[in-house]
């Protein structure tokens, strides 16, 4: 199987946390290998990419909708839409991060894996603009999501690469507790 058809082991390890039959955004999906894999597991998937020809392949899979959008040179196309899961692999455009986090619904799961500093030693991309700095994914989600797993590692297969990976969840909305009640100062 060609490397660009292999399903991310990170996605496979954490996808079960996405709420059953939930909606999933596959950002920068390319031909939709992950979108198709998720749809076969009964998720409703929106595959977004700027390459219409690549999206055409993803659109053949039942349960996958597609949106052709230039994520780097146009406005965020998903304002006000939230997803139960967001999957990003091998893509980094830092100006999108705030929009991406805003698109994660309460209880939703972010599964992100992309190239990290050091990758230029083993292949492409090698431009630091497209490589995460040490701990950068942790910094991005800090104070907004609960991190379940994080790695900053060398991945030997399917092609050698330095990657960062994170699986994080947005806690479900809860009414703020009255601090007096928490400390027993409020008598009912």
Description:
The structure is a single chain. The relative contact order is 0.15. The longest helix has 8 residues, at 52-59. The chain is 20% helix and 29% strand. The protein is α/β, with parallel strands linked by helices and 188 residues long. The radius of gyration is 18 Å and the shape is globular. It has one domain (9-182): Rossmann fold, CATH 3.40.50. The chain has a seven-stranded mixed sheet. The model is unreliable at 174-188 (pLDDT under 50).
The whole-number mean of residue pLDDT values reads: 90
Q: Say which CATH homologous superfamily is assigned.
A: Vaccinia Virus protein VP39
Instruction: Give the helix proportion (percent range).
Output: 10-25%
CATH topology: Rossmann fold
CATH level-two architecture:
3-Layer(aba) Sandwich
Low-confidence runs of at least 5 consecutive residues: 174-188
Order of helices and strands: HEHEHEEHEHEEH
Instruction: Supply the helix-strand structural class.
Output: alpha/beta
Number of helices: 6
Beta strand %: 25-35%
